[in-house]
Amino acid sequence: MQDRPDPDALLQRIQQEQAQQQRGRLKVFFGACAGVGKTFAMLSAARAAQAQGLPVTIGVVETHGRADTEALTAHLPRLPLRALPYKDRTLPEFDLDAALAWGAAHPEGLVLLDELAHSNVAGSRHPKRWQDAEELLAAGIDVWSTMNVQHLESLNDIVSGITGIRVWETVPDQFFDAADEVVVVDLPPDELLARLKAGKVYLPQQAERAAANFFRKGNLLALRELALRRTADRVDDEMRAYRRASTTTAEAVWPNREALLACVGTGDNAEKVVRSCARLATQLDLPWHAVHVETPEQQGQSATLHPQVERTLKIAQQLGAAACAVLPAAQPAQALVRYAREHNLVRVVMGRSARRWPWQATLAEQIGQRASDLDLLQVGTLPSRDALTERKATRSSAAAPRAPFWPGYIAAALACCVAAVIATPLANVLELTNIVMLFLLVVVGVALRFGRGPAIMAAFLGVGFFDFFFVPPRFNFAVSDAQYVVTFAVMLVVALVVGQLTAGLKVQAEAATDREHRVRSLYDMARDLSAALLPEQVAEIGARFITGEFSAGSALVVADDDNRLQVLPGGTAPVDMAVAQWAFERGEPAGRGTDTLHSSPTLVLPLKAPMRIRGVLVVAMPQHQGQGQVPGVEPRRLLQTCASLLAISLERIHYIDVAQKSTVQIESERLRNSLLSAISHDLRTPLASLVGLAESLAMVQPPLPAHQQELTSAIQQSAQRMSALVNNLLDMARLEAGAVQLNKAWQPLEEVVGSALAASAPAIAAHRVEVTLPDDLPLLQIDAVLMERVLVNLLENAAKYTPADTTIHISAQPQSDAVALTLTDEGPGLPKGREELLFEKFERGARESATPGVGLGLAICRAIVQAHGGSIRGDTIHNAQGQPTGARFTLLLPRGTPPTDLGDDADA
Hints:
This protein has 26 helices and 26 strands. It is of the alpha/beta class. A hairpin with a 3-residue loop joins β23 and β24. α17 packs parallel to α19 (483-530) and α23 (706-737) packs parallel to α26. It is extended and about 155 Å long. Residues 384-402 and 899-908 have low confidence and may be disordered.
């Protein structure tokens, strides 16, 4: 029997197909490295498409002067390139607007875009060429392009580790995976090296360097394997998507890639099945899944079976299972076959089971009958004395809390007696067939009320009572007519079948009712949590839900900004802070029913939110025989869902509070910056006049007396300090308002350091300065004026807070992606614990100090460095005795995009 298709999945597929029809098609020619012939293959395919009448144009193709590649472009039309100014020259770049106009004029047109990972020249609409391709595809224009495996974002670090060359131009994996077609252009390493030596990839001088660095045979082998593996993964994803979308051809498993499915049961053999499957998967290097099917009958069994299943699935997860799932289903074989086919799992690993009845097929036989395309591997059972002892103990402990079974059987017997009593006076009125219906009705009622066992008993009693009281000769079991034997057999079979079906439907209805009740409770809880504004309200809602669903106590323990746990008021469960701290730090459940601190009377679940763990949920299950009950798989899943909802609600409240504080802070900063800017503008003119008047007084003729010259000099120095302070205030306000535009250019760091030393010469006149800059420092793309301001502020700080005749050291060191510039002094160092605060506005090393300043210098430094994409930090230098010997400020400035590596220069 085929499963009914999911209407939501069908609707989603139809919407995706409609969106895909309006979008252009992307075809990528994919290779291991430059030189394998991607551009040549793309142009050859484009020539063939043009011969079939398809409109084709070249958006941009890099032939690198190769004659055979250039010849393929001879009969293909080209779009004119767009000239863009870059520094002191003009560079040709792909014209996106011209391609869009050409596509609008040529429906079903095809644009060729070589080198998909290429970075566009500054001034283009998009920084990357793949973004140009995305806009063309959105406009319904087909695009063909080329790329190498090292340009995939997810493989960038792997390629860098293999080749030792960092590739900065990358394409997101999502864009590559969304391509409609990927063509692998492959070439063995020896042939590629031969092409390199023959000058078919690079010019001779470039070929020598490439062969010694990027194009080593080991590198080519590794890149080739990466390209083929990545393509195989993509093809496998396409195959799975096709199987999911197909409604007819996905009925059988396709053994294109081996995968295992471990069937987890409730017996002692479950762990052995999982371990055997894990060993087999490790030996064969295969993915594997672990699945447990929960039948409706298990809903009525003891909860002591559930921790065993959960423990086995946890072991499977620890052993590396790709997925662990619990499938609710009435027929385990059907559920396992459906799961195997949905996930294309070829081999099913399961335990060996015996027949309950001679006519009843085992689970393996049922799977074999339903799916002949699946391979079945049965794991042998090796029962041990400890396992048998544990099983007996489990059964005895499970039987203790069960309700007595005999009332159902007594009720079945009484119901049959009542039916016989009612039917006796009607024996002369009703036909025997109608009396049979009366006993069948009793069987249905007993099955609906008491289940399978009493229904079977009612079926046999009904046949017996019907024979004894109503079939002639009456009041004995003798049968005068052999036809009644058939009647008895049919009546018994019908009664048994109807009773079994009714009992099964009853169990399924109860399970569905329970699930509906849980879903409704979760919905009510989520609705209440969405309106909660305080953590205390969240704790109250969670406690109300857990009390209503489990009759259990609970407590909510949340973490503050310093990760200190605090118990929220209103909890009804005892909290062991040691267990709560362990669960919070490790993000794993602990306490009752787990493998960690299982002696604890409570179950502790971490509150995992999307950003971080917000605390823990403590649950005290109801007591039974002096101990808390252990929740089964379904209750544990419900508790996990409850914990997730509580965590998300706590995180939402946290970020609401953060947003409110940020809004207030932003408004305060905006008001303060506006005030500072206004004050600075109003003070600059009078301060400039004051400085000018002081300078004029110093130059009057005849010269002023000595004491008046001293006063004039003091006025001039004070006015200059006040002018510098106002300039700092104004610069800080402009930086925070984003009004400063960086004038970046490639500059040697030596020139910036030299100009900063010259500008701060009066302030550091009493100190020695040592500069240590290596010769191999790269050029940095910086605003030289602003970066000079940073160094001047740091030098003036060092001069103000260190004794005279001490040394200021300036050094630099290149790193992989940045240049570290360090300035150290021999002063008292930075205040302990306030290193970061010193970079805030109006923060000084000492609140009350005779040293002039208002605490804006370091704030301006950080604002300028961060505007360059770098960082700055300060710390204190200590000697061997732990005493401070000076302060150190370290600037990390990005190196910028280096020249294109050899792997990207050509492709023919």
